[in-house]
Design a protein that fits this description.
Order of helices and strands: EHHEEEEEEH
Number of strands: 7
Largest sheet: 7 strands, antiparallel
Structural class: alpha+beta
Low-confidence stretches: none
Length: 147
């Protein structure tokens, strides 16, 4: 059972192809994820099942370094990644759905067991993740709608 399971979604006025290509490119993660300060490919491009990326982030006052590995990738539909190395097991899934030719629904789901945080923080984790994800998706929406 996962201690954390948070789903957040947003409607973006951009085609699904553009939204998915941008959101699934780890090079852009620091531009739309407020807590991610650094992203680096650990495997060669292009994005595929087995691709790995190193991320450095700050969350709830902690500096985190973790490697995500792509476990499922259906271009323009779904991307699932899980930690291959990091402070706690986590899985992040993006899905994209066309509402029309110029509008995309993006869903971001995080599931995991944030064992690296003290027990005092655990009750607040889902709230903090949801709040951060809402802010990140709003930033992604802004970037895609204004580029």
């Amino acid at each position: 059972m996962n201690a954390l399971d948070v789903t957040t979604e947003i409607i973006i006025s951009a085609p699904r192809q553009k939204t998915a290509e941008w959101a699934s490119n780890p090079d852009f993660a620091p531009e739309w994820y407020a807590n991610i300060h650094f992203a680096q490919w650990k495997t060669s491009r292009p994005l595929a099942v087995g691709s790995q990326f190193l991320f450095e982030a700050h969350f709830l006052g902690k500096k985190l370094k973790y490697t995500y590995e792509v476990v499922e990738f259906i271009p323009e539909q779904k991307l699932s990644m899980r930690t291959a190395d990091g402070p706690f097991p986590m899985e992040t899934t993006y899905t994209w759905e066309s509402l029309d030719s110029q509008t995309t629904r993006m869903i971001l789901r995080n599931r995991g067991n944030p064992a690296g945080f003290s027990r005092l923080f655990r009750p607040f984790m889902a709230f903090a993740v949801k709040k951060a994800n809402q802010k990140d998706l709003k930033q992604l929406k802004y970037l895609l709608e204004n580029s």
